[in-house]
Write a structure and sequence with these properties.
cobalamin biosynthesis (chains A, B), isomerase activity (chains A, B), about 250 residues, CobH/CbiC_sf (chains A, B), about 10% strand, homodimer, about 45% helix, Cbl_synth_CobH/CbiC (chains A, B), globular
Chain lengths: ~250, ~250
């Protein structure tokens, strides 16, 4: 069906009035109205999560990604300060380190703008290992990429699979050092536990990490938090970030 | 780094014991342990959402996808009964209707198994319309695909963009008839309102729809609910679903 001809709510195609399309703007934000309304959305989030520290950028993004104001209290930062893993993540983006996601869906959610980081996914690797051992394909894919050295100095993102988070924790225990870990697997079997273990191992070995507590989480959240690291890096690059925040990032 | 040599928690690579890799099983579920634990996960969900109706399959999946037992109460079914849109969705899968998602991330989350539906995304279409009018790219992409007739009889999935949901509502108002709509856009600007409008328009024009109330939602949820339609269809196909439920679906 077409949208030609005036409909009752202003979706007439080809009309030049800008106001006509107000309702079609959101966070896709390459078009005029889209960018206006993206800003409205972030304004609302900033009222829910006052932006007082650089870690608050991540807390705010968690609220934005989940649509839930309370989610800010479920985010955890592993490092000497809450800001530290966010700084480490932004620095890794500025250094164009690889972003390595667990599954295709998380990779699909990583923004293409504001960074030169290669983006790759783990899933699809390690099939032989999975078949031989019975471990999950995502866990095997993490172990396989780790064997190739992919996770050292990388931005390691686990959005879906608890077993991938557990595998990454083992890799860290065995000596791998990602630049930063973003881990938000979701669900009822080992999701919370896998993040707990990842936090413990990351803390022990000095690996900066951003994660959450509880059963919630998922691919959209992981992609959103990673994209916020890219946004912080962009703000550092173009000088629009608070100078104190950016102090060790230029 | 490698995982060779025994580590403290049994992630030794190349060990033949099946038990060794228990911790690496989740819902990726093509490997042995993965399938066992996927079943554990769904067992836990079934305790939280007793499976008494076919609509409960969708409620359960919403809990599974969000990791939140309370989410079952936020799901809404548009149709003569709660079961009706689930049946319509399963029927559309059995008829191999196209699955059309709003964005790439939702498309990436649609299972490749259990159906022969072509899967495509809207985003990437309608660029000229977006530029000319200032509407969002996702909204323009829906209007453009609709002009090509893509949404009639399709499984229309909106996981991310409120403006895409509003655009689809306009298309339905103008005569388009998807086989079923799955709509779970997330966020603080028009997400809840876009779903409300979509439900009103769908109800008025007899289009079956599955959606949620509130600000929460997102790509993972949309993909999960759509995949559950595929699972229901698979159960109908292989006869493992309750005969009464499957009555008008064979």
């Amino acid at each position: 069906m077409t949208t030609e001809g005036a409909s009752s709510d202003g979706t007439t195609e080809g009309v030049s009035s800008e106001d006509t399309f107000d309702e079609y703007a959101d966070l896709g934000a390459t078009t005029e109205n889209a960018m206006e309304i993206a800003e409205t959305s972030m304004d609302r989030v900033r009222k829910l999560v006052p932006q007082e520290t650089i870690a608050d950028r991540i807390r705010g993004k968690s609220v934005h990604a989940t649509g839930d104001p309370e989610f800010q209290h479920l985010v955890r930062f592993t490092g000497p300060t809450d800001d530290a893993p966010v700084r480490a993540g932004a620095r890794a983006v500025l250094e164009s380190r690889p972003i390595v996601t667990d599954i295709t869906m998380v990779k699909a959610g990583i923004t293409g703008r504001g960074h030169d980081c290669p983006v790759r996914k783990a899933i699809g690797n390690g099939a032989e290992l999975a078949e031989r051992t019975g471990m999950t394909r995502t866990a095997a894919s993490v172990l396989e990429l780790d064997r190739e050295g992919v996770y050292d100095d990388a931005i390691a993102v686990i959005g879906n699979a608890p077993t991938a988070a557990l595998a990454l924790a083992d890799c860290i225990e065995d000596g791998t050092r990602p630049a930063v870990v973003v881990a938000t697997p979701v669900g009822f079997v080992k999701a919370a536990e896998s993040r707990e273990r990842l936090r413990a191992v990351a803390a022990e070995h000095g690996v900066p990490a951003i994660s959450n507590v509880g059963r919630r989480g998922g691919s959209g959240l992981a992609a959103g938090l990673t994209n916020e690291l890219v946004h912080v890096a962009s703000d550092v690059r173009d000088g629009s970030i608070d100078a104190e925040w950016a102090a060790d990032l230029r």
